[in-house]
Every structure is written in C-alpha cells, then in structure tokens.
Amino acid sequence: MRFNHELSKRAGKAGATIGVLLLLGGCASFHAFQMSRPARTGDQWLTTEDADKAVNAMAAKGMMPETIDCRFADTRPGQVAYLSKFTWMRAPANTRYHWEIGDPTYLASKEVKANRVGLRRVFAKVVRDPASGQKVGCSVWVG
Hints:
Blueprint: H1 5-36, E1 39-40, E2 46-47, H2 48-60, E3 63-74, E4 81-90, E5 97-102, H3 104-116, E6 120-128, E7 135-142
Antiparallel strand pairs: 1-4, 2-4, 3-4, 5-7, 6-7
C-alpha cells in the first residue's frame, strides 16, 4: 500500500487553517460579548470636570452613559461640588444623549429642555445628604 505524502500535507495545512479560524472566531465572539455588557469607569468618583473628560473619551470609543451615580463632594453651605460614576453601553448609530448632575430644581429645568429637543430620560437618581438634608440628582437622557 502506498502512502500519498502530497495529500497528507494538504490535510495538515487544512487542519491548521481550520484551527486558526476557530481560534480567531472565538476571540472575536469574546470581544463582542465583552463590549455588549456595561462597562464601568472604575470605582473612583469623578468630579464634574473629570466626568466630562471621561464621557468624551468613551464617546470616542463609541460608548455612551447607561447609568449614572452621584453624591456630594462637599456639603458645607454655599459649596456646590458633586461627584459621579458611570456605567457604559455601546452607543447605537445616530443616538444623541445628554447627562446632568445638580440639585433637583436644576434637573427639572434640564428635563424640560431635553424633552423639547426629543430626548427622553432613561436613568435618574436623587441622593439626600443625611447631615445637611441637601439633595443632588443626576440623569441621563437619550434620543
């Protein structure tokens, strides 16, 4: 019985090619899975300035805020300083969004403006400081 070396070489190359394709397919599906779930900016609280930078950086990656968490940075009278955290989601094509953080009256005025331009609120939170009784709210609008 004769052994065909040429056929054996082709079968080996085909097997290696299929193996590489399966490996690449697995990597691509893992990456797609990782990008489909919400991402966090980390567990650090961001100042408003840092939050603006984070939102712009994530927008450049095709991400938008899914949720926002907020709290006071300073509750002394006359001090207006807030901190926020975000979770992220892949931004659908042609989607506009806006986020705000501030006292509930300020957020109510922003709600009216957002509705006028076709945005709807998809996430909101209000936090009350137990010591001072002050409230801060944060919202995300999408349209």
